Amino acid sequence: MSKKIKTAFVCDQCGADYPRWGGQCTSCGEWNTIKEVRLSAAPKEHGNRAMGYAGSISTVKLLSDVDLAQTERILTGITEFDRVLGGGIVLGSVVLIGGAPGAGKSTLLLQAIANIADRGIRVLYVSGEESLQQIAERARRLKLPANQIMMLAETSVQRICEVMDEVKPQILVIDSIQVMHTQDAESAPGSVSQVRESASYLTQYAKRQQVSIFMVGHVTKDQSLAGPMTLSHIVDTQVMLGSTDDARYRVLRADKNRFGSVGELGFFAMDSSGLKEVKNPSAMFLNRAETPASGSVVTVLWEGTRPLLVEIQALVTDCQYGNPRRLAVGFDQNRLAMLLAVLARHGNIMTAQDEIYANVVGGIKVSETGSDLAIVMSVVSSLKNKVIPHDVLFFGEIGLSGEIRPVANGHARLNDAAKHGFKKAVVPKANAPKQKLAQLQVYPVSTLAEALDILGDLV
């Protein structure tokens, strides 16, 4: 008599389990994401999975007795990559790097491990999609030292761990996790259960043997990581590699990092010789037109651990149809609508009958509120057709009552603006420096009305 196969129904978006199939996941609200997976007993290789990632039974310990030794890191030799990782690769950590096809994930990792291997650190590159000849051809095209990089074409995680027991690498690259399979799950590679079990198996090995693992992950059509949401919970660090709207540059963002800052950005330029670091991203996003135009304003964002100067443009035009459009590219469209309402109430500037288009130049995505004041000033500049000088910048959060709220790291933002040649800055009163800056004249404001008055004097 054959043994009955146990099955379960799992949402491939959030990982919620159900006793039977359903059309909608009640946990995350998504439709048609519940898939049937087969369950099987885990093999007793490389220790018991129930013993935890450490490979031994856990014991109760006082928090004060926990060892606080400094975590050892390995530098990749790529400054922007190390910045996003939080200062380098932590031994025993698992990093998931995702991105669209052609973004440069494999190229970036190949450049990083080539630098690491050149310093005598043992690295192993496991390819499940490309042939070893294709990877060797890429390394030759990029002119990378390849005599120290160990390669393996394999998709079985059990076999990969056996090879690692033999060659003892310190860095492992899995390209990609979606094509890996494990004996713990009987479904096809790429399914929810296979991706989850393969990632769990490799993570357990990494924690027990202190091997740092990079996993390459594919993305879906909505630019989210393919596979179960539990994949993001398993790994220590999750970074996404994407391109700007004009596809000239690549932006590496840390969405999760247990060893560093979340939201940290790294900037690269792609050419025939691979990914090149952009040392001064502010200059990249401030490539402004020679002739000043209305609706253009510069602001200072804070991304991770550094300031970033970007240009915000707005276009206010007469409504051509029945309903005026409100379109925002690079930041939340609902926030644009809220700022326009505050401008009407506390600035007495009405835009209800106008179409308004706002854009963050360079394809950068603004996630903080420090750009509120710059957005409003760009709208007013375009509406009144008044040109704001190139050496003036704005930053600050706007509240619903018209107050200008301070933002984090205001002094560092001002210093960065002064380095790039800006002469005047309109900032929240609480962010005004206590001592005058030699190259920058600061205009502190506490309300939107005060900022509009200063704007009238500047233009």
TrEMBL record:
<keyword id="KW-0863">Zinc-finger</keyword>
<dbReference type="Pfam" id="PF13481">
    <property type="entry name" value="AAA_25"/>
</dbReference>
<dbReference type="InterPro" id="IPR003593">
    <property type="entry name" value="AAA+_ATPase"/>
</dbReference>
<dbReference type="GO" id="GO:0008270">
    <property type="term" value="F:zinc ion binding"/>
</dbReference>
<keyword id="KW-0479">Metal-binding</keyword>
<feature type="domain" description="RecA family profile 1">
    <location>
        <begin position="70"/>
        <end position="219"/>
    </location>
</feature>
<dbReference type="GO" id="GO:0140664">
    <property type="term" value="F:ATP-dependent DNA damage sensor activity"/>
</dbReference>
<keyword id="KW-0067">ATP-binding</keyword>
<keyword id="KW-0346">Stress response</keyword>
<dbReference type="InterPro" id="IPR004504">
    <property type="entry name" value="DNA_repair_RadA"/>
</dbReference>
<dbReference type="InterPro" id="IPR041166">
    <property type="entry name" value="Rubredoxin_2"/>
</dbReference>
<dbReference type="GO" id="GO:0005829">
    <property type="term" value="C:cytosol"/>
</dbReference>
<dbReference type="GO" id="GO:0000725">
    <property type="term" value="P:recombinational repair"/>
</dbReference>
<feature type="region of interest" description="Lon-protease-like">
    <location>
        <begin position="355"/>
        <end position="459"/>
    </location>
</feature>
<protein>
    <recommendedName>
        <fullName>DNA repair protein RadA</fullName>
    </recommendedName>
</protein>
<dbReference type="InterPro" id="IPR027417">
    <property type="entry name" value="P-loop_NTPase"/>
</dbReference>
<dbReference type="GO" id="GO:0003684">
    <property type="term" value="F:damaged DNA binding"/>
</dbReference>
<dbReference type="Pfam" id="PF13541">
    <property type="entry name" value="ChlI"/>
</dbReference>
<dbReference type="InterPro" id="IPR020568">
    <property type="entry name" value="Ribosomal_Su5_D2-typ_SF"/>
</dbReference>
<dbReference type="InterPro" id="IPR020588">
    <property type="entry name" value="RecA_ATP-bd"/>
</dbReference>
<keyword id="KW-0234">DNA repair</keyword>
<comment type="function">
    <text>Plays a role in repairing double-strand DNA breaks, probably involving stabilizing or processing branched DNA or blocked replication forks.</text>
</comment>
<feature type="binding site">
    <location>
        <begin position="99"/>
        <end position="106"/>
    </location>
    <ligand>
        <name>ATP</name>
    </ligand>
</feature>
<keyword id="KW-0238">DNA-binding</keyword>
<comment type="similarity">
    <text>Belongs to the RecA family. RadA subfamily.</text>
</comment>
<keyword id="KW-0227">DNA damage</keyword>
<feature type="short sequence motif" description="RadA KNRFG motif">
    <location>
        <begin position="256"/>
        <end position="260"/>
    </location>
</feature>
<keyword id="KW-0547">Nucleotide-binding</keyword>
<dbReference type="InterPro" id="IPR014721">
    <property type="entry name" value="Ribsml_uS5_D2-typ_fold_subgr"/>
</dbReference>
<dbReference type="GO" id="GO:0005524">
    <property type="term" value="F:ATP binding"/>
</dbReference>
<dbReference type="Pfam" id="PF18073">
    <property type="entry name" value="Zn_ribbon_LapB"/>
</dbReference>
<comment type="function">
    <text>DNA-dependent ATPase involved in processing of recombination intermediates, plays a role in repairing DNA breaks. Stimulates the branch migration of RecA-mediated strand transfer reactions, allowing the 3' invading strand to extend heteroduplex DNA faster. Binds ssDNA in the presence of ADP but not other nucleotides, has ATPase activity that is stimulated by ssDNA and various branched DNA structures, but inhibited by SSB. Does not have RecA's homology-searching function.</text>
</comment>
<keyword id="KW-0862">Zinc</keyword>
<dbReference type="GO" id="GO:0016787">
    <property type="term" value="F:hydrolase activity"/>
</dbReference>
<keyword id="KW-0378">Hydrolase</keyword>
